[in-house]
Amino acid sequence: xxxxxxxxxxxxxxxxVKIFSITFTNFNLxxxxxxxxxxxxxxxxxxxxxxxxxxxVIRAYNEIFxxxxxxxxxxxxxxxxxxxxxxxNLFLSSGLNKKDALSxxxxxxxxxxxxxxxxxxxxxxxxxxxxxxxxxxxLKIIKEQNFLRFSxxxxxxxxxxxxxxxxxxxIICLFSLFLFDKNFRKVVINNFLGFxxxxxxxxLIFLPNIIWNIENNWITLQHTSDNxxxxxxxxxxYRGLEFLITQLLMLGPFLVVGGIxxxxxxxxxxxxxxxxxxxxxxxxFIEAIVVRANANWAAPALISLFVFFYIxxxxxxxxxxxxxxxxxxxxxxxFLIGSSYPANxxxxxxxxxxxxxxxxxxxxxGYKKNIVVSDRLLFSSLNYELRxxxxxxxxxxxxxxxxxxxxxxxxxxxxxxxxxFTLIGSPLDINYLENxxxxxxxxxxxxKFTKRKxxxxxxxxx
Length: 462
Description:
Blueprint: H1 4-24, H2 31-40, H3 53-65, H4 69-93, H5 98-108, H6 112-117, H7 124-143, H8 147-163, H9 168-180, H10 182-190, H11 192-215, H12 219-228, H13 237-251, H14 253-261, H15 268-275, H16 278-290, H17 299-312, H18 316-338, H19 352-362, E1 370-373, H20 376-385, E2 392-396, H21 407-410, E3 412-413, E4 421-425, E5 437-442, E6 455-461
Parallel strand pairs: 1-2, 1-4, 2-3
Antiparallel strand pairs: 4-6, 5-6
């Protein structure tokens, strides 16, 4: 296998490639990224679809480094360096020596899942960070129990829940381990108060978001149920197969194949790693077949699977092939970004800045101050791209109507408004307004970034 000093150089080289890509690309922020940035401007204990930790950290980060495209895009890579350090400690807790653990955490930085997600600001960043820390503490607790470790487990789990609600998978996996592992059951029974301490600390840290949800009628549960959407069942085995293939590619196919071929006797630690991955894969696989599922919904499972397969693999040639494949994927991916390659997969981040400024430039003077946007992602993107201008952004929402995103809570268009504004959406979106108005359709700039074309109007009050 490649020596660690060479791996470190390769990591440094790819980091420079990422910096190059971010500096020279013409691509823009994803709508979701702009949304998290916008959330950070109004700190709260919770948001419509996500808990608040990412928004809190972005706010602190922006106060220090600013909110330029470069600053925001380099942020995920910095977090992944922290995650890789956690993976290093997870390797140590799994029985590897320091040298092999360092190799493992460096190779982790090359897997396609990391290459892809290190370009995106997402709630997965801190979920993975605290998930890995939590799993590491659990492995330590299984071997030796003490008050401090139970405390750390609870703290890390609480922070994981504050990062993303998918942290509930950890509880599901923990329960699965209790059911299927006799030795772990003994640990739990003999240290019941210790685990009670962990759960108590977890709930205490997560409590502010629970209170926020109570005060906002549990709208997050509404969003989660909409995502699950089991009322619109559409059985499709192809979606499930596509999900599994995507997970294999995100880990690196040669790592998975090599790990499977190298399996002989699995020790207790490896069994634990499997229990903290396979239930998640199974749950999301079923959801992909029944309704739908995004590839990142099983992101925490990839941490355990990566460590499991890396420990299991013994074929040096396959390790090298896996490294070459993953390195090539990362290099090509960021080269395409740096060159602003016009591929369909990049459409969602192409032309947003140009669109935003064309909207502002072509809109009549009396309509620039207020812009009403009916689409959540475009609402976020326009807020970011026009952040240096004094513009009021609103989301159409009739009081008492269904809340489908956070901006209907914090930036609703009041039914009594009487100031002219620009509308991006449909006149039907504002038919609840009480004052008399006229609608004039104007030319809409190109919208390559979305399949849902939104018309542009100037709304004038009589």
